[in-house]
Amino acid sequence: MVAVRARLAYLAAAVVLASGAGASKADSVVLPSGLETHLQEMLWDRPGGGLVYRFRFVAPELSTDEADFDLVRADLEHLCNEFALPKLSNVGPMPGQIIISMADRASEFGVYDPDITQVFEAYRIEDGTCIWEVF
Hints:
It is globular and about 35 Å long. Helices cover 30% and strands 30% of the residues. The chain has a single domain (2-133), classed as Roll (Diaminopimelate Epimerase, Chain A, domain 1), CATH 3.10.310. Strands 1-2-3-4-5-6 form a 6-stranded mixed β-sheet, sandwiched between helices. By secondary structure, it is α+β, with helices and mostly antiparallel strands. It has helices at residues 2-21, 69-88; strands spanning 28-30, 36-45, 52-58, 97-103, 118-126, 129-133.
C-alpha cells in the first residue's frame, strides 16, 4: 500500500510539473557554454538505489553534432550545482542521486523519440556539491 501511495504521489507530481506549473522564467538558465536552457520538469522516484531527482531541461540550440563533450558535461554539472542543488531545500528529503538531462525539445519522460537530441548525466551529492557518477 505504501508503494502504491508513493507511486501515485510521483505520478501526481509529474503531471503538475509537466503542465508547466513547476517552470517559470526564473527557471531559465544561461549555461557556461552560452547555451540557454529552461526547466521542462522535475521528477522523482525511488528505484532500487533510493531517492532520485530528475531535472529535465530544454535547450532548443542543443546539438551534439557540433558540441564538445567537455562543454556539454560542464553545462550539465553547472545545472546540477547551480540550479538543482538550491531547489532541493524546497522539495523535501535529499536524494541519493540527481540526474540532469537536456534535450533540444520537450518530450514525454520515458518515451523514445529518435528525432530528439538528448544528453544526461547522474550525480551524487557530497559536501554540498554534485559529483559526477559514471553510468
